Every structure is written in C-alpha cells, then in structure tokens.
C-alpha cells in the first residue's frame, strides 16, 4: 500500500513526499519535470516521470505500486502568468485533474488530498478569511483551483471518493537544505536572488492601511504544510470524516516590511528595500484562520518567521552555485 504524490518533484510536492516517507508511508512520486527537479525527489520514493494528462500511465503506476491514495499537487501554479496563458492553465489544472480522477477510478483508488489555493478567494473584504468566505477568483489559476475542488467533490458524491482540499497562501522556508523554492515569482526567491546578485530588493507600495504601510500576508512554513497533508491522508485512510476544505492559515499574518527586516537579520546582509509603486490589484491584507485545520489536522505554526527565513536562506545558499 502506498500514496502517490503528483508534482512530487516540485518545491512543495517534494516536501510533502518526504514527510510521507519520514512517517513510514511508501510513496510514489509522479512528475513530468517541466518545473520540478529530479534532485528534489527523495531517494526512497518510487519515481514515475509522467504527465497527469496521461491517464493510462497513471493507472499503470497506481496498480503497479498498490496505491491507496493520492496527494494532488501537480499543476500550473503561476497566477499572474495564467492571465496570459489561460488555455495552458486550464489544460494542466482542470483537464489534468479530470485525467487523474479518471485514473483513480479506473485503478480503484478512493482517497485524495488536493492542493488548492487561497487564490480561490480573490481579494476578500474581510480581515480574517475562513472556509466560508465568498470565492471570487481573479485569475485563470484561481478559477482552475476552484473548479478542481468542484470536480473532486462531484466525484466524491458520485463514486464515494474520500477527499479534502487544503487552501494555503504563501509557502516559504525549507525542511531540508536539499530543496529550495525555485519559483521566479515568489517573494523569498526574488529577495534572495537580488541579494546574491548585489541588487537591492524592493517593496511594491508602502502606503497601505496597515501598521507599517506594507501589505500583510499569510506566510506558512513548508514543513508545517507537509505535515498537515500527512495527517489528512492518514485520517481519510482511516475512514474519518473530514471537512471538504481547510485553510492552512496563520491567523495573524506578516507584513512585507517585516519580511524584509527578518531577511536582513537572517542573512546578515544589511539593506534598505527600495519602495516601488503599488501593483494593481494588490489588497492591503489577506490572512486566513486555521482553526478548522487545527481542530482536525493538527495544524499549527511550528516554525516562526526567523525559522522560515533561516531555513530558506540555507537551502538557497546550498543551491547557489547551480542556481546562478
């Protein structure tokens, strides 16, 4: 019996796969390596290089490795780029999920943990986002994640698929120096790349109605997120009833200004960020409650901001020669 992790060679997926292995769960990684890295795959994981659009290959892998459940993280994850490439986004995230669900049905696999996103909320007008906050996605990426949730729920009603979806915001840090965030769009990699390149990081807007004038966001450590996936999988496999969705939120958030100060302290590189104009559509604050996940998935913020910066920086420095 094993669990299959789609997108398990990516930054988040590789951490999730490692968390499963560390808990003694046989793990299969499926990744087409379009953005993932083979070096991120744990040596004890069985690796299948394939796209989730290849339903026949997925069925074959599930049967070959006696898969009992799937953690679905594979997809096109760049919200901004998705506006320019909507068809690719829907192909990877919607058609891909349909393909995966069909393969699971064909192979008799009845448990799924879905990696959803806070992008389903768009720009909420509440101080604290809950699972019931209205969904108004503002990009094809956010729309595709919400459709993914609908597809999985429909499959649950039709064929008894036991499932839950985890929505999260900004994932940072590293659980091992072997894996770092390689996204060209996320804040931590952007700041680290600037510092390593001798450039000054910048903040987009410092005149928001927040304590220090910079945007406030939810930042969670990738290792905490990975642990929540393992708990969700175990509970589904045990036959426990879970909520259809959970927010993995901090409950209080951190400002971009505070992030910059923490990075200066954690890296030992003193800098004063440049202030650039606001970006269109950036809300002042997006923070989520994690109360439901704390109740059911043992969710909590085990790593503080200092840990997030230190672990991310150590992993980025370890990869620096190959990443430059």
TrEMBL record:
<protein>
    <recommendedName>
        <fullName>UDP-glucose 4-epimerase</fullName>
        <ecNumber>5.1.3.2</ecNumber>
    </recommendedName>
</protein>
<dbReference type="InterPro" id="IPR005886">
    <property type="entry name" value="UDP_G4E"/>
</dbReference>
<keyword id="KW-0520">NAD</keyword>
<dbReference type="Pfam" id="PF01370">
    <property type="entry name" value="Epimerase"/>
</dbReference>
<comment type="similarity">
    <text>Belongs to the NAD(P)-dependent epimerase/dehydratase family.</text>
</comment>
<dbReference type="InterPro" id="IPR001509">
    <property type="entry name" value="Epimerase_deHydtase"/>
</dbReference>
<dbReference type="InterPro" id="IPR036291">
    <property type="entry name" value="NAD(P)-bd_dom_sf"/>
</dbReference>
<comment type="pathway">
    <text>Carbohydrate metabolism; galactose metabolism.</text>
</comment>
<keyword id="KW-0413">Isomerase</keyword>
<feature type="domain" description="NAD-dependent epimerase/dehydratase">
    <location>
        <begin position="3"/>
        <end position="249"/>
    </location>
</feature>
<keyword id="KW-0119">Carbohydrate metabolism</keyword>
<dbReference type="GO" id="GO:0033499">
    <property type="term" value="P:galactose catabolic process via UDP-galactose, Leloir pathway"/>
</dbReference>
<dbReference type="GO" id="GO:0003978">
    <property type="term" value="F:UDP-glucose 4-epimerase activity"/>
</dbReference>
């Amino acid at each position: 019996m094993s669990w299959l992790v789609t997108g398990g060679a990516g930054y988040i997926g590789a951490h999730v796969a490692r968390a499963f292995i560390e808990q003694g769960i046989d793990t299969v990684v499926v990744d087409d390596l379009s953005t993932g890295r083979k070096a991120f795959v744990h040596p004890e994981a069985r690796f299948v290089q394939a796209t989730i659009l290849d339903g026949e290959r997925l069925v074959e892998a599930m049967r070959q490795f006696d898969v009992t459940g799937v953690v679905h993280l594979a997809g096109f994850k760049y919200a901004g780029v998705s506006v320019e490439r909507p068809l690719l986004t829907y192909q990877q995230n919607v058609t891909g999920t349909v393909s995966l669900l069909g393969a699971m049905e064909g192979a008799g696999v009845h448990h799924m943990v879905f990696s959803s996103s806070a992008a389903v909320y768009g720009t909420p007008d509440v101080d604290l986002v809950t699972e019931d906050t209205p969904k108004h996605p503002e990009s094809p990426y956010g729309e595709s994640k919400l459709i993914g949730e609908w597809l999985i729920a429909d499959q649950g009603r039709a064929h008894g698929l036991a499932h839950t979806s985890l929505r999260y915001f900004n994932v940072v840090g590293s659980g091992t120096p072997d894996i770092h965030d390689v996204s060209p769009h996320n804040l931590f990699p952007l700041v680290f790349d600037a510092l390593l390149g001798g450039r000054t990081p910048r903040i987009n807007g410092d005149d928001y109605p927040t304590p220090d004038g910079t945007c406030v966001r939810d930042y969670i450590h990738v290792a905490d997120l990975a642990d929540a996936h393992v708990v969700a999988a175990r509970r589904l496999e045990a036959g426990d009833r879970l909520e259809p969705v959970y927010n993995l939120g901090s409950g209080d958030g951190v400002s971009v200004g505070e992030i910059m100060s923490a990075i200066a302290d954690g890296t030992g590189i003193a800098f004063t960020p440049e202030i650039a104009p606001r970006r269109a559509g950036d809300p002042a604050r997006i923070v989520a409650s994690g109360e439901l996940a704390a109740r059911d998935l043992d969710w909590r913020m085990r790593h503080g901001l200092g840990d997030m910066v230190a672990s991310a920086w150590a992993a980025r420095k370890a990869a620096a020669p190959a990443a430059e």
